[in-house]
Structure formats: structure tokens, C-alpha cells
């Protein structure tokens, strides 16, 4: 296929025009055929033009399907050819520039489209990530809320169960306390005196008559007595002593029931002796001793009644009951000791011993809320003793002093616990115990005066002993 080429240089243009000879196409016809679409064909023609051997061409193939018939001859001169050539070049360059600009615009638009698509994809991806993150957070929050609700429900149920158990335990303890302390103090004191008689007949006597039992019990006495004397406010020491005594009691129980009761009874006697010797001069020492007693009573339930019986025997004010002290038996049951010379102990010594023993009982009430009803009953009973101490100043001063000393000890040791449990009602009893109608405004010597001072401390919010256990 033969095509024409328009050269880029003027000399080449002249050569092309000269080589065309007498071809029947005019120059205008040739330039009309040259356009942007045939640019590549012209480029190919430039490679073939020099191979033409004749000055005339019957046909010119511009493309596979374009045929230019032979018509006119060239009539243009070289100047016109140059002009047209320049014009054509300009058109070509313009076409090229337009094509380049169009292509560049297309590229720009394509880049912008791709950028928009990328940004859209990134936006959608970000939205998807945000949506998934929101779903994750929502699911996590829901899971945490469900867990929290479940935990709260478990805690609520556990608290309800705890309250139910505490209520049931308190009801049992209250029922036990009511059973232990009836409304009539005479019935209560007879109950515990009967326990003392039972111990004499069914424990003390059989052990004394059985050599093997007796030897075993004597060996246990050597373990119990020093441990009671080692009690301190240290919780670790209390736990150690309690554990040692519990082992001693358990070992005795493995022997037989009689030996077991003998050992428990001896422990109770030891507590009373410790109260007379130490607590009577140091009231706060009642708390650690009472703590040991309460822990052991929890491990050995039969110990409690035995301990109350021993406390009540030596200190009848545990269950307030006024004995007739004009008789020998009445003096003994009132807790008086006969001296070696046959005389009864001085009233001052008696009051000290009574307060020491009673302080252990008051400390048990302060440390164990299940004994609060017993504490309330004691307080009500001693306040209801007739005549009241104010009337005893002229008739029974010593008894009035003892009652004032016992009330003072109770307020010092257990007063805070009573107010904590019974609040305003306990405050009313304390006010009544320190009122002029009960203790009088003046007179009655030291114990009366001390109760009045204690009453003033309570009205100022300073009543009660300060005590705390050590680690």
C-alpha cells in the first residue's frame, strides 16, 4: 500500500513536491487527505516515498478501503506548499495538543474518579469499622451489664440468704436466751443452783471415787489453770489458748462423759478464780477472758449453762436476786466468803469480788449479741429491785452500795453494746439507773457517788470503758 508523506522540514517538502511530477491530484487534494486520523499512515508513507521509481501513480492508497482516483495535476507552487505544510503542521500539533490535553483531562478525571472511589471506599471502610467497633462495644457493654446484673443478683441473693440465716440464728439465740432466763429470777436462779447440785452428785463424786478418772482429771488441771492465767488482749494469744483448751476438752470427752463434764466444770471454776483475782482490780481484763469463754462455749454447747451456774453461785447478781443475809445460808448464797478467823469478809472486799465476777458476765453480753436479751433482762430486773438503792441508804446501805457497784460495772462493760443494740430504749434505762429516783441526789457514800458520776458521763456521751483487742 503506497501513501504520501508530508515531511517535517522545508527541504524535504520541496523534494516531495518535485517527486510528485505530473500526478493528477492537486496539492489541495493531498492536504485535504492529511488529517489527525491519518497521521500514522503518513508516517508510514514517509518510509516508502523514496522507493517510488516513477513520477506518476495510477492510484494512491490512503488506507485499506480509500481509493483516490487520478484527477488533476499539481498547480501550486513551492511557496504555497510551504505555507500549507506549515498550516498542516500547526493543525497536526494542535490536534496532538488537543489529543494530549484530552488524554490528560481524561487521566485527570480518571485519577479524580479513582481518588473519589478510594476516598469513598475508605469512608465506607471507616464507617464499616466504626459500625463493627460500635457493635463490639455495644456487645461488650451488654455483656458487662449482664455480668454486672448477674453479680448484683448474686450479691442480692447472697445478702438475702445471709439476712435470712442471721434472722434464723437470732431467733434461735433469742429463743435460747428466753429459755435460759425466764421472767421470774427465782426460777432462773433455782435452775442454775440445780446444775451445781447435779455436778456435785453426778460428776465430782464419781470422779473422786474412781482412781483412774481422778488421776486423769488432776493431770488436766495442770493444763487448764496456767492457760487461763495466760489470757491477754492479743487475738493471736486468745486463739492459741482457745485451741489448746479445746484440745484438752476434746481429749477428756474421748474418755467418758463424766470426765468431760468434770474438766468443763474445773475450767468454769478457774474462770471465776481469775475474775476474783485479776478482773476485780482490772475491769478491762474481763473482755479477753470472756472472749475465750464464748469461743469455747460455741465449740462445747454444754459449757455455757455450766459457766453461768458457776458465775451465779459466786455472784448472785448475774441473776439479780436478793437473799436473806441474816442467815448463814443466805450469806453463802449471797456470795460472801467466811474468813479463816470465822468472820465474814468485809463489805468492800465483797463488792470488789462481786464486780470482778460480774464483769466477765457483762463482757460476754457485750461481745455476743445473742446474749443481748439476757443483758436487757438483767438491767430491767436490777432496776426493779425493791426498794431502790435510794431508799436503802437509811435501811440497807451495804446492799444499796453493792447494787450501785454492780449497775456501774454493767454500764462500764456492756453499756455501749446495749445502746448499739437497743438505742433509745437502752438510753432510757441508763438515765433511769442514774436518776435521783433510783440512786438519789446525794449520800450513800462512794458507790452511790460513782454511779452518779457514771450517769453524768453517759449524758455527755463519754460513758463506757474504752477497749480493743490487739492483733
From TrEMBL:
* Compartments it resides in: Nucleus, Nuclear pore complex
Check the record and name the InterPro entries matching this protein: GLE1, GLE1-like_sf
Keyword terms of this UniProt record: mRNA transport, Nuclear pore complex, Nucleus, Protein transport, Translocation, Transport
One GO MF annotation is: inositol hexakisphosphate binding
Biological process terms in GO annotation: poly(A)+ mRNA export from nucleus; protein transport
The question of whether Ubl conjugation is a record keyword is answered with: no
Task: Write out the ranges of the annotated region (Disordered).
Answer: 126-187
Protein name according to UniProt: mRNA export factor GLE1
Question: Which organism does this record belong to?
Answer: Schizosaccharomyces japonicus (strain yFS275 / FY16936)
Amino acid at each position: 500500500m503506497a501513501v504520501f508523506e508530508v515531511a517535517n522540514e522545508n527541504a524535504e517538502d520541496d523534494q516531495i513536491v518535485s517527486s510528485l511530477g505530473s500526478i493528477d491530484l492537486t496539492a489541495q487534494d493531498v492536504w485535504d487527505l492529511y488529517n489527525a486520523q491519518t497521521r500514522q499512515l503518513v508516517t508510514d508513507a514517509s518510509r516508502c516515498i523514496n522507493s517510488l521509481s516513477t513520477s506518476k501513480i495510477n492510484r494512491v492508497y490512503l488506507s485499506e478501503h480509500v481509493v483516490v482516483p487520478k484527477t488533476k495535476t499539481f498547480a501550486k507552487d513551492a511557496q504555497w506548499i510551504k505555507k500549507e505544510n506549515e498550516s498542516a503542521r500547526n493543525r497536526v500539533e494542535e490536534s496532538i495538543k488537543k489529543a494530549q490535553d484530552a488524554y490528560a483531562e481524561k487521566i485527570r478525571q480518571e485519577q479524580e474518579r479513582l481518588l473519589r472511589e478510594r476516598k469513598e471506599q475508605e469512608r465506607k471502610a471507616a464507617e464499616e469499622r466504626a459500625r463493627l467497633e460500635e457493635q463490639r462495644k455495644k456487645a461488650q457493654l451488654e455483656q458487662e451489664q449482664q455480668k454486672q446484673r448477674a453479680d448484683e443478683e448474686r450479691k442480692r441473693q447472697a445478702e438475702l440468704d445471709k439476712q435470712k440465716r442471721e434472722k434464723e440464728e437470732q431467733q434461735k439465740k433469742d429463743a435460747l436466751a428466753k429459755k435460759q432466763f425466764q421472767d421470774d429470777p427465782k426460777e432462773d436462779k433455782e435452775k442454775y443452783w440445780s446444775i451445781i447440785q447435779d455436778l456435785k452428785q453426778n460428776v465430782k463424786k464419781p470422779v473422786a471415787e474412781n482412781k483412774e478418772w481422778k488421776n486423769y482429771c488432776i493431770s488436766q488441771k495442770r493444763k487448764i489453770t496456767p492457760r487461763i492465767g495466760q489470757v491477754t488482749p492479743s487475738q493471736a494469744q486468745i486463739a492459741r489458748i482457745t485451741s489448746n483448751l479445746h484440745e484438752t476438752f476434746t481429749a477428756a470427752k474421748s474418755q467418758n462423759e463424766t470426765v468431760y463434764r468434770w474438766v468443763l466444770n474445773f475450767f468454769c471454776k478457774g474462770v471465776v478464780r481469775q475474775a476474783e483475782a485479776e478482773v476485780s482490780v482490772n475491769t478491762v481484763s474481763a473482755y479477753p477472758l470472756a472472749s475465750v469463754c464464748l469461743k469455747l462455749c460455741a465449740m462445747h454447747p454444754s459449757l455455757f449453762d455450766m459457766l453461768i451456774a458457776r458465775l451465779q453461785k459466786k455472784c448472785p447478781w448475774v441473776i439479780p436476786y436478793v437473799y436473806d443475809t441474816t442467815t448463814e445460808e443466805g450469806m453463802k448464797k449471797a456470795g460472801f466468803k467466811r474468813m479463816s478467823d470465822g468472820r465474814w469478809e468485809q463489805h468492800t472486799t465483797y463488792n470488789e469480788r462481786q464486780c470482778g465476777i460480774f464483769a466477765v458476765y457483762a463482757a460476754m453480753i457485750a461481745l455476743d449479741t445473742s446474749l443481748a436479751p439476757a443483758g436487757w433482762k438483767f438491767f430491767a430486773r436490777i432496776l426493779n429491785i425493791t426498794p431502790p438503792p435510794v431508799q436503802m441508804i437509811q435501811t440497807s446501805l451495804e446492799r444499796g452500795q453493792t447494787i450501785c457497784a454492780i449497775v456501774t460495772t454493767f454500764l462500764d462493760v456492756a453499756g455501749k453494746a446495749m445502746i448499739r443494740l437497743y438505742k433509745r430504749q437502752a438510753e432510757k434505762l441508763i438515765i433511769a439507773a442514774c436518776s435521783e429516783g433510783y440512786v438519789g441526789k446525794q449520800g450513800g457514800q462512794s458507790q452511790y457517788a460513782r454511779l452518779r458520776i457514771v450517769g453524768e458521763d453517759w449524758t455527755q456521751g463519754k460513758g463506757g470503758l474504752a477497749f480493743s483487742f490487739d492483733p
